[in-house]
Amino acid sequence: MGIYEEISGNRTKTVLLVALFFGLVVFLGLVIGALYGNQYVGLILAVVVGVIYFLMSYYAGSRMILAMSGAKEATKPEYTALINAVEGLTIAAGLPKPPKVYVIDDSALNAFATGRNPEQASVTVTTGLLHKLNKLELEGVLAHELSHIKNYDIRVMMLTAVLVGLTVLLSDFLLRSFLWGGKGD
Is 126 helix (H, G, I), strand (E, B) or coil? Predict the structure, then answer.
């Protein structure tokens, strides 16, 4: 099997996985509705909460992730080498514009990309990564993160996180309904 067949197969599997989670959200909505006497109310609740949760995550997810991780935007002259490396690799990768660059003050070796598309993407690295890796190793890590941006993996990861989070939220609501009696009992 060639690389293009692998890519096509992975896209199909991704669509199936997202559809499975969406089906689970619909099922949980129906169960919650049945518990409270009307399946459609539960389904509408699941869809409304899901749409609000999705829109918040889609438009503000990156900012929330960066804020929760304590990331600060990399600025020149302190991080000139890092910013220049990202800009050079962006050109080499054929991305439309360089992502914003952030740094987390942490000794752990870590990096991640986030955003909804290449135009709104960002790359974050830890200070531990900057201190422990040489230039070539750092460029390898950055190239890896830029590949996530170019292949829209960041959108798939965000959508998956939203669906998993929504599933957990609805499951917790359902569990509490069972524990505390449901139907206002």
Answer: strand
Better-predicted residue by pLDDT, 178 or 146: 146
Q: Which residues are catalytic?
A: 145
Residue 100: phi and psi, rounded to 5, are -65, 150
pTM reported for the whole predicted model? 0.77
* Pairwise CA distance, residues 6 & 165, whole Å: 28
- State the DSSP H helix or E strand holding residue 12, giving kind and residue range, or none if neither: helix 3-35
Q: What is the Cα 37 distance to its own chain's centre?
A: 35
User: What is the rounded distance in angstroms from the CA atom of residue 82 to the CA atom of residue 76?
Assistant: 9
Token pair for residue 59?
């438009």
Please give the sequence-ordered ranges of beta strands (E in DSSP) within the chain, or none if there are none. Answer: 72-73, 100-104, 111-114, 122-126
Amino acid, res. 75: T
The upper half-sphere exposure of residue 101, i.e. CA atoms within 13 Å in the direction of its Cβ, equals: 24
